[in-house]
Amino acid sequence: MQAVGDLRTASKGAVVVRFEYLQWNIYQKITKKKEPNAKNVERLKSIFQKSGCDRFTKDHHIIAIFDHQDIEFALKDARERTKWDGKDLPSIDAVRNSRDGYPELRFPNGLECLQGRDRIQAGKEWLTAIDKWWVVDLYPSDSNLIFKTLLVEQYLNEEKTSDGEIYRRIREYDILSGSGGGEIPSTTYKILERGWWSRLPVSRQQKLKSLFTLGISKDASHPNIAAAFDNLRKITGLCDAGMMISTLHKVLATHCDEVSIRGSTRDLSLT
After folding, report:
1. In the chain, what is the straight-line distance between the N-terminal and C-terminal CA atoms, in Å?
2. Following DSSP, what letter does each residue of the chain receive, concatenated?
3. Distances (CA, A) of 107 to 58, 76, 85, 185, 235
4. Residue among 117, 148, 128, 116 at smallest CA distance from 26
5. What is the Cα–Cα distance from 138 to 95, expressed in whole angstroms?
6. Which residues contact 27 (CB under 8 A, 6 or more apart)?
7. C-alpha gyration radius of the chain
8. Is the pTM of this model over 0.90?
9. Phi/psi at 62 (nearest 5 deg)?
10. pLDDT tens, position by position, for the chain (271 residues)?
């Protein structure tokens, strides 16, 4: 399996794509995020307002996967429209500071993006109609699910993430690694799970492990808490916004499940 640090070397090049061709089906399947993060979108719009919208720096590109037939059609179409006369696509590492440095490709069947949805949503709301495009790094769509998942995970690791999302991802990967029913090997799910654990300071890791030991194990002494947190996990928006790992030790120490459930989720109802 390719190392996470080497993932970007598999890119086939960078192109300009207008927003109407960008889709997020695989991204949503992997992240369970149905909508852009509204707070992050507003933050990005504020950056655009103050500093401009930089789409050319490599770290600001977004990643998408392409079907070989679609890319051949897109390149032929670009040449016919005199939008591109080169043989190879520009490398994602090439220094190009203008839109003219990349071919503008059209994808009538859509182009599946694996990251950058908040950036695109901010662009949709801030940019003028003629300027609604982004620089996209392309990867072949026949890459396996492990590769696609790691690409998404690599991007998520660059974001500031809530306690609720960290808990949700750890729990999901833990369940998948133990069930044997996932789409990728259980060992890979454990690697992904460890990646999310590493995002927590040691003190919060200890608090979360206390919940797993007391509430989610087969010999759970807090079965109501176990059920409540697993129910919360299924409602992505509530889980990501409502959970506070820093308070779990106080919650479990009360030995009062009903109050604990409410207190650990900022008084959100989980039933």
Report:
1. 41
2. ---GGGGGGG--EEEEEEGGGEE-HHHHHHH---S--HHHHHHHHHHHHHH----SSGGG-EEEEE-HHHHHHHHHHHHHTTS---SSPPPTTS---SGGGS-B---TT-EEESS-HHHHHHHHHHS-GGG-EEEEEEEETTS-HHHHHHHHHHHHTTS---HHHHHHHHHHHHHHHHHS-SSS-HHHHHHHHHHHHTTS-HHHHHHHHHHIIIIISTT-S-HHHHHHHHHHHHSHHHHHHH--GGGHHHHHHT--HHHHHHHTTTT----
3. 22, 12, 18, 32, 33
4. 148
5. 17
6. 33, 112, 113, 114, 115, 117, 152
7. 21
8. no
9. -115, 160
10. 344 445 556 678 899 999 999 999 988 887 778 888 888 899 999 999 999 999 988 888 888 988 888 888 999 999 898 878 877 787 777 766 656 678 899 999 999 998 889 999 999 999 999 999 999 999 887 666 666 776 666 656 556 677 888 888 888 778 777 776 566 667 777 877 887 887 788 888 887 777 776 555 444 445 556 566 767 666 666 666 667 776 665 655 555 544 444 444 443 333 3
Q: Of the candidates 271, 270, 244, which has an alpha carbon nearest to the alpha carbon of residue 167?
A: 244
